[in-house]
Every structure is written in structure tokens, then in C-alpha cells.
Amino acid sequence: SVSSIVPESCLLIVVGLLVGGLIKGVGEKPPILKSDIFFLFLLPPIILDAGYFLPLRPFTENLGTILIFAVVGTLWNAFFLGGLMYAVCQLGGPGLNHIGLLANLLFGSIISAVDPVAVLAVFEEIHINELLHILVFGESLLNDAVTVVLYHLFEEFANFEQVTILDIILGFLSFFVVSLGGVLVGVIYGVIAAFTSRFTSHIRVIEPLFVFLYSYMAYLSAELFHLSGIMALIAAGVVMRPYVEANISHKSHTTIKYFLKMWSSVSETLIFIFLGVSTVAGHHYWNWTFVISTLFFCLIARVLGVLVLTWFINKFRIVKLTPKDQFIIAYGGLRGAIAFSLGYLLDYEHFSMRDMFLTAIITVIFFTVFVQGMTIRPLVDLLAVKKKQETKRSINEEIHTQFLDHLLTGIEDICGHYGHHHWKDKLNRFNKKYVKKCLIAGERSKEPQLIAFYHKMEMKQAIELVESGGIGKIPSAVSTVSIQNINPQTLPLERVLPALSKDKEEEIRKILRTNLQKTRQRLRSYNRHTLVADPYEEAWNQMLLRRQKARQLEQKMNNYLTVPAHRVDSPTMSRARIGSDPLAYEPKEDSENLPIITIDPASPQSPESVDLMSEEPKGCSGLPPSPEEDEEGLVMRVKEPSSPGTDDVFTPGNSDSPSNQRMLRCLSDPGPRPEPEEGEPFIPKGQ
């Protein structure tokens, strides 16, 4: 009941305090957690367990965010905390004035890094969702390179009489050497371990030994050259796992899994117990100003760093980090035994304030592990943060995941934008074509990923079935493959596929090469800022508009002959409309050669049925119409059609062209009423 409220790490520290107090009470000197023991024997199993079983897909998808938190965040914490603590030492009185800037920066680099052991101990108990877990845990793993560089850098600078610009530049470059060098060492040992496991089919007993041996050699080799041992262990575990698991037997895989879990649990238990014992046994120098300032500024630096970096990161992330996520990331920045061991490594000759540093470090560790570790579970429940869902992977999920990966890779190829899906696909192709053939023995190197996943699930299901004692009642969901995996029999002969000749294969390749679209060619990415205007685009648009207008005009002429007329106005309305304003008729030029149509106002024919005409009183030019001319009738002249342009799309014909004859015929047949935006008013106003 106590462990459901208090994290296991807190209980172990309490046990260490009790054991240390008991040893000291009987007059003996309690043992102290020495840095050599911690870094050489206790830390590597925990890091190897984390690196070997690292969830690779969420880690790689969030690698940019993790690196920003690990590198930029740790640098910010170290320099912000070191600078403020230097100011506190200058203002804090006679007991702190002798502590210089480099010593405070060294202290800031020690206390600023998030501890992977403490994060693992707390976050695995609260079952936080996978995104937050991989962000905080990934940060705690990768910030080791920054911590190692800053620690050794400020330790060396403390021995210098004067620090030059060249020293600072070399220190900045050493970060890349330490981090990338550690990764390179880990990759080399991981490949060697995978290659060795290819030849262990006849000695299955020692297969797990090679995994532990090469991993530990990677860690020691990196530490030998002052590179990042944690980065080397992670790289070795990530690189060797897929190839080693394909080569070794299932029993060896089970041995590696449970031995690593057991080994890391023992190391974690010893680390927290020794932290409690060392707290009782160590020499302490308590300074209220320094300790309280350290604790306060640690919290302030963590919160500010997470808020600023998340604001920047969210500009580039598709899945944004919500305020709840930011709170959990800031609150989960736990400190642990790495900071204590680094502080214990300090030399008394150059750092006379080492006891005060260790006291402040232990205070921060106890506050983060006890206060933050105990309250993070209720806060996660209170904020309703998404928990981790324990679901078993299925074939259906694997198929859809691979399908989406291929789909996104194809979309990036078509767009010409090469993102991480494209490079992931390139890496998978290279791995399948070259690396697997060298590092995996037998036919397993050619086995598709989906089939390998299916076989793994079948084996797991069969073993669970045997362990549960249900071999006599085999459910229908279990296929016979599971039983064959339990009791392997002689395999039947494989069906021989017909082999193609070289000429036939080359002919098929040639046909595919010439007919399939080349999607792998480099295309220009779409960008609306770099689009170049086509100089001929405007002219083409004008010509298309003219063609369209010409077709519409021709269609309208055809409708005059085929479509029945609209309902005409009554004779009274027609007479009133024409006689209401005789001055509105605009006199036109001489129209002797044009046909003359006399319209009786009382006739049922509506003047609105006549379109595309210019109407004026006959024989008048510029004068109002006389009553005689009004009685005589209206002269209607055919209006010349306007040309759509100067090109050859539509050229107006002569008066004897078929279009003009069609125009004259349509005058005698009332057609449909024109649209308001087309044509002209029947009676134009005088200008």
C-alpha cells in the first residue's frame, strides 16, 4: 500500500538512510558510493537495458524535439544556473565570496542534467503516455554528451591561468567529437556483435554473452577516450538488436531480455540505497543561502527552458505539445546519482568547496525524487493526462503502418520534397540489399519484415499456450504454425519456382524502364513565392474567351429559329410603351439600303421581340420624330456584330454572308427574351 503512493526510488533512499544510520550508530564508518564503482559497474546495465529495448519508432520520430531539449535545454540550465549562482556567491557574504565563475559554471553543469535512472524509476510507475515518456527519457539519455563535455571543459579551465577564445572554440568543437565519437564507437561494436552472432548457431549457450561483452566493451572504449559512454551504449544496443534477434535462438533472446531487466533493477536498487548511505556517511557543509538558491534556480531554469523551447518547437511539430505536456516535461526533470557521482569526482585541491557542492546536490536530488516523484502521479490523474495504453501489436496494425510509410514516401517523391520518410526508405533499402546479407545468416536475411513479425507473434502465442497448459484445447484462432514451432518436424521440400532466363529478365526490365514513370527523379518543390508568370498565358486566356463568346453568339442565333417566343405583351401595353416617350428615340444615319419594318403599336407583336437592332424614326436625323413619321412606322437597321478581337477566332462577315441572312430571318420570328447582362436595351436613351 505504501509503494502505490511513494515511488520505489524514494523507499530505497529511505532504506539507505536507515542502513547508513544503523552502521554509524554502531560505531562503524558507512560505505560511500564511489564514482568509479558507479560509472564502471552500476550505470552501464541500466543504460544498456534502456538502449537495447528502446522504442525506436517514437524515438526517431521525435528525435529533433529530444535533441533540442537535451542539448539546448541542458546548456541553458547550466549557464543560467551557473551565472545566477555566481551572482549569489558575490552577494552572499564572506563564506561564498571565494567561489569563482568557473566553479559555479562547473556546479551548474553537474546539477543541470536530467538523470535517466531517476526518470526510469518514476515514469515507469505512473504509466505516462509514450510521447511524454520518450521525450523526457530521451532527453535524459542524450544530455549525457553535453554534461560530459561541460564537466571536463570547466574542470580543465579551472586549472588554466587564462582562458582564451581558442580554448572556448575548441571546447565547443569537443561537444561534437564527444557525442558523435561515442555514437561511432557504439555503431562499430554493434556491427561486430551482429556479425559474430551469425556464426553462433552451434553454440547457443554463449549467444547472450556476446551481447553483454560487446556492449560493455563499447562503453569502456568510449570512456577510455573521454567520449560519451552512454551514447556508445545506446548506439550499440539499437544497432545490434534487429540482427542479433534474427540470428540467435528464442531461448537466448529470453535470457538476454530477463537478464538485462534483472541486472538493471539490481543496479538501480544499489544506486538509490548507496545514495541514502552516502548522505549519512559523507562530509557536509550546509549553507542556507547557497542550498536554497540552488534549489529555487533549478526549478526556475527548468520551467523557463521548457516553456521557451516548446514555443519554438511547436512551430515545426504537427502534433503540438499542449500546456499539460509542457508541465509534465518540466515537472519530470528529476536529478539523480549521476550528479552525485560527478560531484564526488571533484578534486579537493582545485575545488575546496566540494562538500558544499555535494550537500546542495543531495538536497536537489532528494527534493526532485521525493517531492516531485511523489506528487507527479496525483498531478497526472488530476490533469487527466493521457496514460499509456497496454495493447498488443497485431498483423492488421503492422500492415497499415507499413502501408502508410510507403504512401508517405511516394507522396514525398512525387512532390520532390525529400523528408525523413524518404531517407528512412533509402536506409531500409540499403539495409535490405547489403547489410542484412552480411549480418544475418541463412534465409532469414531475405525474409520480409511482415512475415518475420508474423512468425514472432506465432511463436509468442504458442509459448503462452504451452505455459498456460492449454495444449489439449487449441483454440481456432491458433494456427498450426504455432504447434510446429513448439515441436519442430522435418520441413517439407520447398516448391521450386520457375527461373527466368537472363535475356527474358532483361527484356522485362527494359519494358518496365521505358513505360513506367520515373518517380525517383529530382523535381522542383512547389513554392508559391518562386512561381514564374508565363508571358503567353494572358494571350491564351483572351483567345479562349473570344472563342467562347463566338460559340455563345452562334448558339443564341440558332435558338432564335428553334425556341418558341416568350409571352408577348398586350396591345395596350405595347402602345403605351412606345408612345410614352417619343423623344427617347435616337436618330440614326441614313438607312436606305436596310429593310424597313412597319410596326403597328396596336399589333400583338411585342417590340421587345426585336433584338440586335437600332430603331429610329424613318427619315429623321437629329430631330424629334414628327407625328406623320410616327404613324408611318419605325426603320430598323441591322447592327454590325462587334469583333471579339484581332485574331482569327471570329471575323465579322459581309452583308451577304450566311450569318447576316440568318440574322434577317430571325427578325421576322420573335425569339426568347435576352439575358439582362447580354444584348442592349430595346430603347437606348438619347445621349
SSE blueprint:
Layout: H1 8-25, H2 35-52, H3 56-61, H4 63-91, H5 101-112, H6 116-126, H7 130-157, H8 165-197, H9 207-224, H10 229-247, H11 250-281, H12 288-313, H13 323-331, H14 337-344, H15 354-383, H16 395-415, H17 420-439, H18 449-467, H19 480-486, H20 502-515, H21 537-562, H22 571-579, E1 596-597, E2 613-617, H23 627-632, E3 634-638, H24 658-667
Antiparallel strand pairs: 1-3, 2-3
What do you see in this structure?
- Residues 477-562 form the Sodium/hydrogen exchanger regulatory region domain.
- One of its GO terms (molecular function) is sodium:proton antiporter activity.
- Residues 6-380 form the Cation/H+ exchanger transmembrane domain.
- The protein is an all-alpha fold.
- It has a domain at 2-385: Na+/H+ antiporter like fold.
- The protein has helices at 8-25, 35-52, 56-61, 63-91, 101-112, 116-126, 130-157, 165-197, 207-224, 229-247, 250-281, 288-313, 323-331, 337-344, 354-383, 395-415, 420-439, 449-467, 480-486, 502-515, 537-562, 571-579, 627-632, 658-667; strands at 596-597, 613-617, 634-638.
- Residues 472-489, 519-523, 584-588, 601-636, 641-653 and 676-682 have low confidence and may be disordered.
